[in-house]
Amino acid sequence: MEKELVLRKTIAIEQILSLCCQEGEEWGTQNRLCSSFNKSLELVPGELRGLCLSTIEICCSKQHKIYQCTAGQIAARQGLSCSLKGDHSGSEFYTDCCEACKIGLVVGSSSSKCSVDPFAFGSPWDEVYDGCCKDIKQDTFILNEDDENNLCGRFDNLCSQICENTVAGSYVCKCYPSYTLMDDRKTCAQITSEDENEIPLDNTLSDCRIGYEKDQRTGECVDVDECETGEAACDAQLQVCMNVEGSYKCLDIQEVKCEAGFRYDRKTGKCEGGLQIPTPAPKKKVESCAPGFRRHNDQCVDIDECSADKYACDSNQVCTNEIGGFRCDCKIGFMLDQVTNACMDINECQINAHECLESQRCDNTIGSYTCIRLQSCGTGYTLNAETGNCDDDDECALGRHNCMAPYECFNTKGSFRCRQRSSQTTTGNSIITTTTTTSTPRPVYYTQPPRTQPQYGPVYQPANQGQQVEYNRYLGSCGIGFERNALGACVDIDECARENVCRPNQRCVNGNGSYRCHDLLICPNGFTANNDGTECLDVDECLTGEAKCGPDQVCKNKRGGYVCLCPAGHIIGRNHRCEDVNECDLHKGKVCPQNSECINTVGSYQCDCKDGFRKSRPEDLICTDVDECSEIPGLCHQRCINYWGSYRCGCEPGYKLASDNRTCDDVDECDEYKSNNLCVGFCENTPGSYGCRCPPGYKLGHDGRSCIDIDECEPRDVCNGRNEICTNIRGSYRCTRINCPHEYEIDPDRSNRCRRTTKYCNPGDTECLRKPTSYSYNFITLVSNMPVPPSGRALFNLRGPAWYEAIDFDLKLLSVDAPPNVRPVDQRFFSLNKLSNEVLLNLVKSIEGPQDIELELSMTVFKDGQPYGSNIAKLFLMISAYEF
């Protein structure tokens, strides 16, 4: 164990089990399988190890339930399914918490109270319901003094998962368990682990479905081999793990029987060679098979429904065969509707699951999407071909501006501005410049405008006072703030020496050519001193007109300042203007109930029912399903299946849905399944089905597909001519008359044999001895293209006497009758296999029908080196036109 369990005998059992529980919680926190706990318990007393393991598993399972409950709530908030496929620890808590959260979201969005008293679900449903219900409660967007620091309450998209306000008037983002905060300090990403014992508790929140994982190289979702990763919970001693698409199966070893030297391969699902394994027990004969299996060689074998029926799944699904059944999975670009179990198209553009650039427009297609480049970037921008982004044009650098002197060009995003150049003035004399400020918090000065001190010329002393005045007039005025002294020089006027120059609460400060009034009481921003200068009073900026609120805003004075309030459904945005709050984007999936679509309006929003739904009354909030099947007669050609929000058209057995998804076309089983040999004879398609027909000379079997040959020779009087023999062939029959050669007659014991009229030959009569003792007429019927093994197929054997000295056999092809389009046989189609005193006639090639073949097989017996007798077998091969 990573943490040593320092357990002494003096430690109480409760303390030991508490440490064991901590180990279990830590093991479960790492998303490991509770039953796979493999840390050492050497320091735990032997008599307590069993209790310790039980405690570890309980605490580990509790941790899994907490994680699954959190994952279920996240799925509910994201509008995902509440069903968790696969066998995962604590999965029932995922479903329960997800459903309880969805109920809370619906109740909260309808402005109802979030009380659990009417339900009293119990734990953990009550806590989850209450939390989700309160989270969805609609916010009021009227800014007031109390919620200025409640940023998380005012703006719902600050964080991807958890937003917490701080004392400093800011906020921080946090994440749910098993998630970590990304570098942008806003987005949460799922924590991954490379430990082989990790179990996928949060697969439902990733981009791939349960049982799949994203390929790091291609980015596509690929099947997870749970048998290889160790995630499969199969008993290694009693079961064999078999991976299937998106999941796995645990098969009992007794169910997997392989012959000696073979082993079941869970990857291929077949018995593979190369290992010496004891021969399994003989298979028992079965009378009937379970659904999904068929009888073959006295055993039940799995039916591949996907190959047997092309329409086992919808056109938007992929059929996957399983042992005893099959599974329909949605194709890429589709997702399963949990209510209807139909695969619906995923709008990748709407859920932002596309990879289009900012300079491209995402257009949804059935099962996929396309990225279309926008045609223009707008005035002031140019499309960057490499990045696909719109780059700003610097009109100043490109000379595309119209700024004239004394203005200079200043570039901005998408445009430019003409800005006046700053001017500088330099004089030889010192100039005192006074400024007047109108800002509320600054002191107000009563001051003379700045004046320029005049130039001084030579001073001449006049002879008398009259001359002095005239002389001063000659010199001219000194300007405001200055006066001439007795010597005629311009000197500063001390305005502060006068009375009532400044207000009572101000102090006068004289300057060169001017003066300043300093406030004795300095007030902060938003305040001004009273007339006595003894108190700072609030400035009502709304009343004085100093407030800079827009025409659509309401000015509200507050102590030390003012606020500009926007109408309901608006918020102050850029440039301090009121902007409409898009409640639909700000609270995605939360402002409107299920089955409705949020439409933003100026200052508010409205909830419109989605296609396939409507409100029972205009004032209702809930959208109910429209039963298109009952309201629109003839909507579908054959079957109409209503489901939540839409409908589907279906077809009767033997029909398939046409491309318009409404009408049904007949399935031509004879053409669709011609490789499966539905009929032995001829297959005839019928509306919604098919039938089997046999050619003349055959009758249809009890199974409705086999063709059984009719034996026309069974009635004894079919061939009633003299010396006629009836030969049944596939699909017909032949009446063949035997005409014996001269000096031969029909053998009364064998109707197909002609014997010599003179039974014995005189000694030395070699001509008589050379004549055949008998002629036999043999009729053999074969089907067209009958399979022939490499060793050949025996057709006829001819046996001689046992006392022979030597026997000679000879085969001749006498005639072949075949139509022009059929290849006639030659002697290479046959071979003779001699065995002591007999010979076997073998067929070594398949014969195409129809055609008639006549062969002659002769046998000559020798004694003392001379012919001592012979027999001839006439062979008539009749090849039918059919292969059955």
UniProtKB/TrEMBL annotation:
Coiled coil: none annotated. GO terms for cellular component: cell periphery. PROSITE patterns: ASX_HYDROXYL (PS00010), EGF_2 (PS01186), EGF_3 (PS50026), EGF_CA (PS01187). Keywords: Calcium, Disulfide bond, EGF-like domain, Extracellular matrix, Glycoprotein, Repeat, Secreted, Signal. Residues 302-340, 538-579, 580-619, 625-665, 666-708 form the EGF-like domain. One of its GO terms (molecular function) is calcium ion binding. It comes from the Eukaryota. Its main location: secreted. It holds the Pfam family cEGF. It is found in: Secreted, Extracellular space, Extracellular matrix. The keyword Disulfide bond applies. InterPro entries: cEGF, EGF, EGF-like_Ca-bd_dom, EGF-type_Asp/Asn_hydroxyl_site, EGF_Ca-bd_CS, Fibulin_C, Growth_fac_rcpt_cys_sf, NOTCH1_EGF-like. PANTHER family: EGF-LIKE DOMAIN-CONTAINING PROTEIN, FIBRILLIN-RELATED. Belongs to the fibulin family. This is Fibulin 1. It comes from Culex quinquefasciatus (Southern house mosquito).
